[in-house]
Structures are given as structure tokens and as C-alpha cells.
């Protein structure tokens, strides 16, 4: 980068080039967008250009750098990783939402969760502080489908009509089966449906409990199914099709026996 020098070495690592780009763009510059995502480990800087954000009025155009002049950057948007100033995970994900396809955004959110940078519920709550800014709406719409949670009564109000629509009998609700409280239970089908409030973020302890429950039901000859609250609310067609397919298989097995 013009005006930035590496003393005592002839080559630069990727991180070194990122740091040089930040220094070249002035004292308030920070790595952002795809470049910040790559440094956080939640994306790839595939454009070939290093992406830098600066306040409006700072930094001129430089070769090899894409400068984003930002009027709304706050102190909370700035983090430092490996000595390099960059946008924090929440701001980075918002910026990615302006550039990527939905499936790519979802993958980045999953990676941020897996790396313990920010979990989806915290991310969704943080978006309120960025209301109206580019990328927020797309990210919020994606998160709403994954972090959506209903009360027991709301869940029943939305799930039971799906049961009716595929011709299944009404299940028992909130029963204890094999020592566990289950959401929906069809004794005549040997079918249990459990519903989860969150698709993304499952702690190891939660996962262990869920596996134990499902294993206990399977050992008793039952079929456990899991849907998220978001699927019940937003993906009714998928829920209906899955219920119908599993119910038909269970009926066929019962008749064969």
C-alpha cells in the first residue's frame, strides 16, 4: 500500500495486507464486510479487494481497496482482532447481508454461532440498534424464521390445524412419555412430535438432553419427530408433508405387523 511500509521483510501475510490497508485509509479506518468476515472466520474475502470502512470524508480511493464511507459507524462497531481494527461480529453480519444470498447469510450466522462470536438470539436483539440501516431487514427476516418462539397455547393453535389438514387424529398434548414431557403424542401411531424454539443455537447440554429423549422414545418403539417453532409458523407446507409421510409409514408398519 502506498505510504505504508513493511520493515525488515519482503513478503506480507494476508493479515499483513489487511493491516496495511487499514493504515493506508487513515486513523479511523477498519476492516469490514467480506474482509472482516474472513478475519472473524465466518466468510471468505473472495472479491480480491480488501474492504475497509471509514467515516464519511475520510480516505481517498486506493488501488486494491474498496472503501465504504459510513456515516453511521459507532464506537460499538469497532473491535480489534490479531491487532487489526475491524467491524464487530454484529456489524459484520449486517454488512454481509447487503452482499450475499440468503443461504450464504445463514451460513455466516451459523459460523458466528459455532465460533461463539454471537448467538442468533443476541444478534436478533442487537438489530434494534441498527434499525433502518442497509442489511438489517434481510438479516432480521432470516433470523425471525429461526429464533421465532411461541407459547404452548400459540404453538397448539398453529400446529393442530396442520394436523387436521393432513387427516391425522388430534394428538395428546403435554403428556409424559418414557419419563419425558412431550409436546404432541399419537399413541395409536407411536409418533411423538417435539418442537424447538431455536434452530441455530443449541448448547451441548441441550443437545445431550434432546438425544437422550429421542433415544428413549426410539428404544420404546416410537418415532420422535422435531420441528422448530419457526417451521410451524413459516414453513407449514414442509411440516404437513413430513407429518403425512411419517404417519403413512407408521400406519403401514402397524398393518404389516
List keywords for this structure.
Endonuclease, Chain A; disordered N terminus; single chain; 257 residues; 18% strand; elongated; 3-stranded mixed β-sheet; 4-stranded mixed β-sheet; alpha/beta
Number of DSSP strand runs: 9
Spatial order of the strands forming the largest sheet: 6-7-8-9
Shape: elongated
Q: Largest sheet, described in full?
A: 4 strands, mixed
Structural class: alpha/beta
Whole-number count of domains: 2
Low-confidence stretches: 3-8
Mean pLDDT: 88
So how many helices? 10
Question: Which range does the strand content fall in?
Answer: 15-25%
Helix content: 40-55%
Radius of gyration: 24 Å
Terminal CA distance reads: 75 Å
Order of helices and strands: HEHEEEEHHHHHEEEHEHH
Furnish the topology, listing elements before pairings.
Elements: H1 14-24, E1 30-31, H2 33-40, E2 50-55, E3 65-70, E4 78-81, E5 84-87, H3 89-96, H4 102-114, H5 120-126, H6 136-147, H7 152-165, E6 172-177, E7 180-186, E8 191-196, H8 204-219, E9 223-228, H9 229-234, H10 236-256
Parallel strand pairs: 2-3, 8-9
Antiparallel strand pairs: 1-2, 4-5, 6-7, 7-8
Summarize the entry for a quick read.
The protein has 257 residues and is an alpha/beta fold. The protein contains ten helices and nine strands.
Commentary on this structure:
With 257 residues, the chain is α/β, with parallel strands linked by helices. The protein has two domains: 134 residues, no CATH class; 105 residues, VSR Endonuclease (Endonuclease, Chain A). 45% of the residues lie in helices and 18% in strands. The chain contains ten helices and nine strands. The protein has a four-stranded mixed beta sheet with strand order 6-7-8-9. A three-stranded mixed beta sheet has the order 1-2-3. Helix 2 crosses helix 3 and helix 5 crosses helix 6. The longest helix has 21 residues. The protein starts with 13 loop residues before the first helix and ends with a helix. The N terminus is likely disordered.
